[in-house]
Amino acid sequence: MKILILGKGYIGRRCADTWNDAVISDKFIKSTEDVLQLLDKHSPDVVLNAAGVVGKPNVDWCETHQLETIEGNTVLPLLIAKACQARNVYLLHIGTGCIFYGEAPDGEAWTEDDYANPVAVYTRCKYAADLALATMDNVGIGRIRMPIDHIPHKANLIDKVASFKRVIDVDNSVTIIEDMMQVFHQLLEKRASGVFHVTNPGSIKHKEILSLYEKYVDSQHNNEWITEEQLVSQGLADKKRSNNIMVSHNLAKVGISMRPIMEAMEDTMKKYAKYKK
Ligand SMILES: NC(=O)c1ccc[n+]([C@@H]2O[C@H](COP(=O)([O-])OP(=O)(O)OC[C@H]3O[C@@H](n4cnc5c(N)ncnc54)[C@H](OP(=O)(O)O)[C@@H]3O)[C@@H](O)[C@H]2O)c1
């Protein structure tokens, strides 16, 4: 299998560095024609779309850059899908679980069948793409959430929570990057269509992440705990962040599973500690 990865950012590079059957493109895509040229140049069996606009320095940027956010997260995936459909190439698009805000309709966890309730510009644009792409055959959407990696990176939730002086203690579904890469590879192999929640089973609190951080990485670490309301009222975020618990029913249907979050988190923190040394 030859994988073409579009988008040379954090997740695209991480996958390209790990998979030995992938090539990565950093071409800036403006049209379906651009994608067709890439498909004809590389002749991939499958495509991973890891290109998108996540906001710099953070997602709040998207609140005031609506057009760029729509271009990168709604228009771009559709241009890519159109080209992949024309060449009959399977596309796996990276979605986000941050389209879900608060408690799930069943009071437990958001499933792939639930309609989302996005609030922020970024999440609304991501969800718009999901709604359209989910109608197509030969297209999969892998929704990830708050990536956690054993390699330090500014997008890694471990680095984020460890760097904040004031932290909210919320319970969330998260994605261990090592597990995500295995799941994405399997989805690409199976050319699985539909929506997939690529979050490790269960949920984890920021307090649990930091407690493992203090155990394995830095016993001197300390921080202040604040409420979600204080996060916005103290000017630490423009918009309330999405917090949610997700579950995947569709991964099991195609024979894919992920490690429970506490097991995967402890393993990841131990590996992260080795990287920091
Ligand atoms: N990181 C997370 O926390 C997270 C969570 C859930 C979902 N996701 C999704 O995962 C995907 C990858 O995110 P990431 O964290 O890897 O972000 P990233 O590091 O910003 O990577 C995205 C890459 O896409 C590129 N790009 C933007 N527009 C493009 C275009 N028109 N043509 C080609 N490349 C383009 C960017 O280039 P420039 O840097 O030059 O703009 C950047 O290299 C995104 O769809 C994001 O929504 C990420």
Explain what the structure shows:
This protein is of the alpha/beta class. It has a single domain, classed as Rossmann fold (3-Layer(aba) Sandwich). It contains 10 helices and 12 strands. The longest helix is centred in the first third of the chain and has 21 residues. The protein starts with a strand and ends with a helix. The model has no long low-confidence stretch (mean pLDDT 95). NADP nicotinamide-adenine-dinucleotide phosphate binds next to α1, α3 and β4.
Q: What's this entry about, in short?
A:
The chain is of the alpha/beta class. It has a single domain, classed as Rossmann fold (3-Layer(aba) Sandwich), CATH 3.40.50.720.
How do the strands and helices of this protein lay out in sequence?
Blueprint: E1 3-6, H1 10-18, E2 22-25, H2 32-42, E3 46-49, H3 66-86, E4 90-96, H4 121-133, E5 139-144, E6 147-148, H5 157-163, E7 166-168, E8 171-172, E9 175-176, H6 177-190, E10 194-197, E11 204-205, H7 206-216, E12 224-226, H8 228-233, H9 250-253, H10 261-276
Parallel strand pairs: 1-2, 1-3, 3-4, 4-5, 5-10, 6-9, 7-12
Antiparallel strand pairs: 8-11
